[in-house]
Predict the 3D structure of the following.
Amino acid sequence: MNIGMLLDMAAEGFGDRVVIGRTDDGLTAGRLRELAVGGAHLARAADADAIVYLAVNGPALPVALFAAARAGVPLVPVNYRLGDAQLDALLANHPRALGIADPDHGEALRRAGLPVRSPAEWLAQAAENAGLPAGDDPAQSDSPAVLIYTSGTTSAPKGVVLRHHNLVSYVLGTVEFAGADPDEAALVSVPPYHIAAVSNVLTNLYAGRRALTLEQFTPGGWLGLVREERITNAMVVPTMLARIMDTDGLDRSVPSLRALAYGGARMPVRVIETALREWPHVDFVNAYGLTETSSTITVLGPQEHRTAVASDDPVVRARLGSAGLPVPGVELEVRDLSGVVVAPGENGQIWVRGEQVSGEYAGQGSVVDERGFFHTRDQGHVDADGYLHIEGRADDTIIRGAENIAPAEIEDVLLGHPDVLDAVVVGVPDEEWGQRIEAVVVLRDGVAIDADALRAQVRGTLRGSKTPDRITRWRELPRTPTGKLVRRDIVEALTADRRTQPGRRPTGMRT
């Protein structure tokens, strides 16, 4: 089974229902299939072995996704925020691709010698060919459906291969066909090169839910569109929800909103507690997943959110910061460095297995182990009831002396201060200790906090060896559009700052 069959089911089951865009000019499921047929003709006529999408999110993306499936080639959504050198290196991997690009990004495709269509041209030409016989050469279940390049926040991007059976398995395991009411509408606020953009196209279509995208996020713009389009379901990254909750003077009323999913980065407990109070009628869902796992592998559901925030039991309340339980079909293990599964409550490295798990990279092949488990490179633990608590990336671990320190637990303490809006903890090279602990915080406007007071807060909660040697104040932290911290940029900035401030005590607070 390939993802094109999901579209066929939708077109035959509710073909007249608008599933992409606004109600007045959006695409029905039936029209989406017609445009996919037309787009597949374009791909075959160009003898393309892939469709490269270098544009913002919009209706052209789902048409390209399903056209690629019908043509038997993968879709390659590319990060348009990459520099020229990175784009050129990435596009060199696809010399026979058909290109779709915004006017601002088309030059990169032309440099690579690829044919270029704007999203509007792509849709128009797909429409011109929509009436032709299907003539499909549909992809096989084990053929690549999507090739997504990782964000590259710590290294060069790697191409993650997601095969049709991976994506179909994810959809069938997590979504009820035609389960959405006709009035349901979803708002997706992630860029097209993120796995959540692809997975939301598939899951919302299969459920029969109309999906819209927000090209440029602002708190007011997001809230306005939710009200205007009567959005019932939305997906955000944690920094977006934090900005919605922390921006003064906003009308935060969202009467139509029923469910809000979040993921892509760690959610500060303070933010989700505020959101639960602000929108008590909304069902919140924390979805944890990776590109290599076809999106979500664990979920913390709505009732679990409400139970945790209302509980006096510290174990139950801690679940508000957890990633929840594995979705159907996914097995999860937490192992130590020697590969032994650890007991509940013990920290280790997270491994997962399931049909939706790819664990495969272009040019490298599969990296799953002999039992089919994929190493997520995230660290964490499961509690006695199986809830997954993520402590951060293995690569983020700070080694101070002989002690391994997870930045996440220090960040959680800093974020517990009511005037700390954002925080990051990193290891900076140190001649004596190997690494020293430094933190950067973002404070509420007009607030001044003494660095020693914040350090005392950490020391009072954690042991002294985990207290930051220095805390610096910045106006904002560098993050990717999906909310992930770009830690290498933070370390570089702090290292450069220390070089220019050789006599400075490490406990200062600077802006």
